[in-house]
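Problem 12. The chain below contains 238 residues. Write out its predicted structure in token notation.
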Amino acid sequence: MGTVTKIGCRLRGVRPARAVLVVAVLAAVAATAAALIADNVLDADGLTGFDRPVLAWMVAHRAPVATAVATGVTDAGGTISMAVLAACVAAWLLWRGRRGSAVLVVLTAVGAAALVTLTKALVSRVRPPVALHLITETSASFPSGHTLGSTAVIGVVTAVMVVAMHRGTGRIMLVTAAVTAVAAIGLSRLYLGVHWTTDVLEGWLIGGVWLVLCLGAAMWWSARQAPPVAGAAPGARP
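Solution.
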């Protein structure tokens, strides 16, 4: 049985409407925060006041080893790396007969890439001074594409894997590793001097909103398609 279908079967016993409501609330809260940061960036006020002090702190604490690690982390969280990860996981899921989960991974990754392109074009924010860059970047600054993409892709891959796992310890370890990876990718962008703090925060938020929406839509759809829970009254609504 596919991973997404498993989620749907579980939801049949815990009221899909309630699960979708929780997803909607989480998405609404994150979207509100993202809108607030976007407004701050456009008006150059609010949280943008932390941008320069944080960047200055990062620059002041650079070291050769830290630079090498940050460069490696940021490369691992780049567009190509995330595309390869999504493609490999989707291929593996198809091989295992989990078509719904494969489609979920692909759509989440493609949607994240589209959101990065669209938002960067709409805001067109200038990156920090080139003199502070430790790597070359030429696109707009807001939001951080590495952060948004890794949040969505690593998030959906983790969700698909966690649901398929049976041991609680393994699930905790996987989620911890995923959160650490996403956080490290975002921080590496600050350390390397190619993003402002609000760029990274926005990337985490938009990526999180998109991830929650994709997972919520997949759970709702699967719950509607899954067979009723054994023992449920005929014609009873979930």
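Discussion. The radius of gyration is 20 Å. Students who got a different answer should revisit the alignment rule from Section 12.3.
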